[in-house]
PI-PLC X domain-containing protein 1 (Argiope bruennichi), 496 residues
Amino acid sequence: MPISLYKRTGRCSHLQWCLFCFIHASAELLLQNIYRHLVLTLIVNQRYFQNFRSLIEMLLYCFGFFIYFNFVQIAQSNHIINSEQDCYSNSPMAVRVFLTVSSLTASTTTKGVVKRHLEVNWVAPLPIRSDRIHIYRVDPVRDPTAIPILSLEPIDYPGGYYKTDIELSVHTRNLRVSSKYTCLGYWATYKRISGEMVTSTCLRTQPKWMSESAYHLAGLQLSEIMIPGSHDSGSFFYRQEREPFSKYKYAQEVSIFNQLVYGLRYFDLRVGHYGDKFYINHNFLRTEHTVKSILHEVHKFLSLSPKEIIILDFHNFPHGFHNDKIHQKLQKLIVSVLGSHLIPFTDEFENATIGDLWEHKKNILLSYDSDTRNSFFPGVFWPSIPRAWGNKQTAEGLKEYFREFFEKPTPQGLWASMAEITPNTKSIILHPVSGLRVLAEKINRNITHWFRDLYWQKANIVATDYFLGNDIIDVAIRTNRIKGICPESAWSNMTP
């Protein structure tokens, strides 16, 4: 089997890859020599010759596949940056393919659960006519005989994007938290005409990406990394919105638990007080979700992924907070559920690294934007997190806002880029059946591009609507691997 089948994209810099090359070449040479010597013996018996030749070819194929899976796949799963040497060998022109899910409703199941279209995206500097992108229902690396369910030529789609006819239902049950990422039934590859697989990916969860990147993250502060998050995180609904203006009420479609499993680590929460309960609000609109249920989802996730660091931003209290005692009641609820996980707001922790937080077994930074923040539980809650919020109604307006914002020095400490289009009263009245799904569709692909190619060096928290429509989680993971190892002098020649 030709060695080019296993060749990695870009320059080889891993000892793992060099070892693979040596083992494969040595084994192939050894088997070929055995083959030549035995041919002279077997030539006298033509009946066994063809069977023996087929056996040798099969052994070479199986051995090559074994080495590929155990060496090359490990290297690919490490997101390229594993040593400082990689900082200078990581080409900004690397081919990359990734899967997203459109925010638009394609149809619904018989139970009314929303179904959306699968999207394939790619970055390929110089695609040629013979290049192919394939989508599979099985892992094509584990099963090289897999037949794609869709194939396309990237040169025909210069935007690097294709929306398929494949429909996916929203996951309404809790996703599995595994020791590594879990693929969700769809894989994509970028191949040359020779059959060489340049890169591969899958639609996946990232429940433990911070612990998997411990080597890269331990020496960094939360304010120094890119943190993927959601805007109006608790305003989620997985059925089709039918009430008047309800299309502007929901900014997400999966639960907080599943948002965590996918890989989000920042959550924008607005709370209303109704009777004796606290509910998640989207401005003045109450959702079906209680704050207590949200807190328990966070607690459950951390029991399964104890090294993930989460930021809960209690940003607004738009209904029912008529006096400080109501804030006291909410804070008491928060502490009763999450108290042992909360990162104290003290001198010791204000500049703590992620490694320090792991050492102290503290993994929730809770920001509480109220004058009562220190009134009842001093030193527990963090101050409000500054926001880069453009309040723009178009993709062009938001692009210009971020361009101007990132030209200036960014805030010190934690801060958030609110990367979504914001409807105003006029647009809601004129387009009552449009909604946040439509607006997210207009901006999400841009968000991937902006924060991968333009702003990754400065960005901190990046919060989006219908986050499965962008690639910000994987962009953040790759960004943090760069920041954790590479000196800033190398960043200008890199793209996560």
Notes: The longest helix spans residues 46-77. The longest strand covers residues 114-123.
